[in-house]
């Protein structure tokens, strides 16, 4: 079973190193290492803006993740540690995003972003994806699990709410925030439909929306397209191999308790 | 004195309310601007004849009548539902199976987990490119393997029935590891003592699975079925890249239909009405699921 899972990836890499027109299909082709070439990679790097797209994806992912985690933590603090009248209503408002995804409201979102003059702009991608309810719920659950004594002790010291959050609650939920952050980063990196619509100039595209432009380019061979896919796949695969434990932990947290 | 106290209590409460909302503001503001406002705005646009440039003319419920009396909307909504019906049972059961296989203390446990999860970190474009080529009728690996096994090759992306399976297979390969990881986490939370007690009672492994494992995983299962249904209804990237909705319009989904109506045909008002109807449909699905889950519990 595991072998079946790996085959598509191995195939992608093998084909990407074969000369144009040669697919790795027969056993002889799989094991023939004499004709391997890096020309496909060179072609993609020279003829497309793939490095630029990778950079855009990275920046958007990093900024989105950082802001989302912080605003979710602030919100979680209010819901977990404060009592206020509109709490119930605001909580339902905040988690309502789980029910209707962005994909279902492309048209009005486009109108909104257009009216703010943020189309074809990095911020047009970042801003609509900031309020992810999952992170808020999870960090809140983590904070709920912390003893109330911290709150009381700090209040006796005359600590204000913001300092409480900054110096006690945020550090104590750090592991949850890292795990959720990694999860957000993957989500942002894989985000497709919204950047596909909101970005139209090639230099502002992200990796996931830049790749399909290869399909309309009839000159490119399978081998070149596989090289492009490999270039797009390598960064996340490397990150995954190094941060495996955190990523798996983050995913488990977001899915089990969400 | 009492009035003064009441006043200061009221003041304190107001202050408390403000400070809580101050903490929530950074989350609430983008939520209002990029979620709540577009929802309302969408309802407004849907009552107009509207283009990308915003040329508007009030038309009342014309757009809705047009959609509801035309079979296309139902057809593509059904396509999305059909995908959900195909993919969700496979993803949930295969994810569970993989989790059960790996959960036993087998050698290379971590390695297997990594392998199954790995595709999930790739973007939809990469997985679509890979499978687009894997399913190529002449040079694709899938048909080569089928032929090597003595089976006949299939025109995966141009045969209407096979096209859906191409999308399903690519999607399962991409996301099943994610579901598996969640089931693994769920399995780890089931108390080992339950199994030991069952062993003493001489329960069969099927019994243990039915009465300990499945109930232990029920909360993960519910959450996952919910999220996988929503994810299935959102299907867009794979069809956009792999089949372009084809052959014909077999794999055209509701999201792609809205996308084409709005951005390709420039009928923004109509597309906004389609969006609004789809949002209502999503809410209905959520409500039905909520009721089903709650009835089972009571």
TrEMBL record, chain A:
InterPro entries associated with the record: MetI-like, MetI-like_sf
Segments passing through the bilayer: 53-77, 89-110, 122-143, 164-186, 220-243
Main location, first listed in the record: membrane
Subcellular location: Cell membrane
Lipid bilayer topology: Multi-pass membrane protein
Pfam families: BPD_transp_1
A GO biological process held by the record: transmembrane transport
Xref: PANTHER family: ABC TRANSPORTER PERMEASE PROTEIN MG189-RELATED, ABC TRANSPORTER PERMEASE PROTEIN MG189-RELATED-RELATED
Entry's family note: Belongs to the binding-protein-dependent transport system permease family.
GO CC, one annotated term: plasma membrane
ABC transmembrane type-1 domain span: 54-243
Protein name: Carbohydrate ABC transporter permease
Cross-referenced SUPFAM superfamilies: MetI-like
UniProt entry keywords in alphabetical sequence: Cell membrane, Membrane, Transmembrane, Transmembrane helix, Transport
TrEMBL record, chain B:
Similarity-based family: Belongs to the binding-protein-dependent transport system permease family.
InterPro entries for the chain: ABC_transporter_permease, MetI-like, MetI-like_sf
Native species: Paenibacillus woosongensis
Pfam families for the chain: BPD_transp_1
Subcellular location as annotated: Cell membrane
Gene3D superfamilies the record matches: MetI-like
GO biological process terms held by the UniProt record: transmembrane transport
Location of the ABC transmembrane type-1 domain: 77-289
Keywords: Cell membrane, Membrane, Transmembrane, Transmembrane helix, Transport
Membrane topology, from the record: Multi-pass membrane protein
Protein name from the UniProt record: Sugar ABC transporter permease
């Amino acid at each position: 079973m595991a072998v079946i899972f790996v085959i598509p990836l191995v195939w992608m890499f093998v084909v990407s190193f074969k000369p144009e027109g040669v697919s790795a299909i027969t056993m002889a082709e799989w094991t023939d290492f004499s004709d391997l070439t890096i020309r496909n990679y060179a072609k993609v790097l020279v003829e497309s803006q793939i490095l630029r797209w990778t950079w855009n994806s990275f920046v958007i992912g990093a900024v989105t993740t950082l802001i989302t985690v912080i605003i979710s933590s602030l919100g979680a603090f209010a819901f977990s540690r404060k009592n206020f009248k509109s709490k119930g209503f605001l909580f339902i408002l905040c988690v309502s995003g789980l029910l209707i995804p962005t994909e279902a409201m492309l048209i009005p979102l486009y109108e909104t972003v257009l009216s703010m003059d943020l189309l074809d702009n990095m911020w047009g991608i970042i801003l609509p994806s900031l309020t992810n309810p999952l992170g808020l719920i999870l960090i809140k659950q983590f904070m709920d699990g912390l003893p109330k004594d911290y709150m009381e002790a700090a209040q006796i010291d005359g600590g204000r709410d913001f300092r409480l959050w900054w110096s006690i609650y945020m550090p104590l939920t750090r592991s949850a925030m890292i795990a959720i952050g990694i999860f957000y980063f993957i989500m942002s990196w894989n985000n497709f439909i919204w950047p596909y619509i909101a970005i139209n100039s090639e230099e502002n595209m992200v990796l996931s929306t830049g790749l399909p432009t290869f399909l309309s380019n009839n000159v490119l061979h399978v081998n070149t397209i596989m090289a492009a896919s490999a270039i797009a796949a390598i960064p996340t695969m490397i990150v995954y191999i190094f941060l495996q434990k955190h990523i798996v932990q983050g995913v488990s947290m977001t899915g089990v308790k969400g | 004195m009492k009035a003064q106290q009441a006043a200061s209590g009221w003041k304190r409460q107001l202050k408390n309310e403000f400070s809580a909302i101050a903490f929530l503001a950074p989350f609430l503001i983008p939520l209002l601007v990029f979620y709540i406002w577009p929802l309302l705005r969408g309802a407004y646009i849907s009552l107009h004849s509207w283009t990308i440039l915003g040329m508007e003319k009030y038309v009342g419920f014309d757009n809705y009548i047009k959609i509801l009396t035309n079979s296309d909307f139902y057809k593509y909504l059904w396509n999305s539902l059909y995908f959900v019906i195909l993919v969700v049972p496979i993803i949930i059961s295969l994810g569970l199976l993989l989790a059960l296989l790996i959960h036993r203390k087998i050698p290379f446990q971590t390695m297997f987990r990594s392998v199954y999860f790995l595709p999930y970190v790739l973007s939809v474009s990469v997985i679509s490119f890979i499978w687009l080529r894997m399913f190529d009728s002449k040079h694709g690996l899938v048909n080569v393997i089928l032929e090597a096994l003595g089976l006949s090759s299939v025109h995966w992306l141009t045969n209407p029935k096979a096209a859906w399976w191409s999308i399903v297979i690519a999607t399962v390969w991409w996301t099943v590891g994610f579901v598996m990881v969640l089931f693994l986490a769920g399995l780890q939370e089931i108390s080992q003592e339950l199994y030991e007690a069952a062993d003493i009672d001489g329960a069969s492994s099927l019994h243990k699975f039915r009465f300990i494992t499945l109930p232990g995983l029920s909360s993960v299962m519910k959450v996952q079925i919910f999220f996988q249904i929503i994810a299935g209804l959102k299907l867009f990237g794979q069809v956009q890249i792999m089949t372009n909705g084809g052959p014909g319009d077999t794999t055209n989904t509701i999201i792609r239909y809205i996308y084409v109506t709005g951005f390709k045909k420039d009928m923004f008002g109509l597309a906004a009405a389609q969006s609004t109807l789809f949002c209502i449909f999503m809410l209905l699905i959520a409500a039905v699921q909520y009721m089903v889950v709650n009835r089972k519990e009571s």
